[in-house]
Amino acid sequence: MDYIKEIEQYKKRIAELEETIKRSSVPIISSLLDDTILVPIVGYTGPERFELIRTLVLEHLDKHRGINCVIFDFTAADLNEKEPHDYDSLALELQVLNNTLKLMDVRPISVGFNPLIVRKIIAAGVHMEFESYVNFRMAMKTLQKEQNSTL
To answer: What highest taxon heads this organism's lineage (predicted)?
Structure first.
């Protein structure tokens, strides 16, 4: 048996599985409103993760042109353990994420920031303008009210 060929096959399979794991780390969930999706952000929130989130959301929007609102839920994101300088980069990543969607004429909404994170971002002197709500439910209630719909 050709061990080098077998090793290359395993490497290829490992790369495929790593890509599957990476893509599944950014679930994109349809919401009760037809034109809105939910993207829960769980765990690590570094620059490369935000790049992956942007890429996958843009790919989804390209395939589903009827989406005009994306709700990012940061309830389970690992934001508490950041160094003080990391809050600047977090704010920058949030701005890039929001601006990217706005260029696509898609409304970005963020939910789930806890008070500690909000205080740290503000204390870092970062000025951010984006729509946010305390949780997914409040965002959905606002969207429902704007669309005069009930569930």
So the answer is: Bacteria
Phi, then psi, of 31 in degrees rounded to 5: -105, 180
Q: Rounded to 5 degrees, what are φ and ψ at 68?
A: -125, 10
Q: Residue 14 domain-assigned?
A: no
Name the pTM for this structure.
0.84
Query: Treating both helix axes as pointing N-terminal to C-terminal, what angle do 86-103 and 115-123 enclose, rounded to 10 degrees?
Result: 100
Residue 84 has pLDDT above 90, yes or no: no
Check if the beta carbon of residue 102 is closer than 8 Å to that of residue 68: no
Confidence grade of residue 128 (pLDDT, cut at 50, 70, 90): confident
The pLDDT score that the predictor gives to residue 91 is 81
> Contact at 8 Å (CB) between 43 and 117?
no
> The CATH number of the domain where 39 resides is what?
3.30.750.24
Q: What is the DSSP letter of 134?
A: S
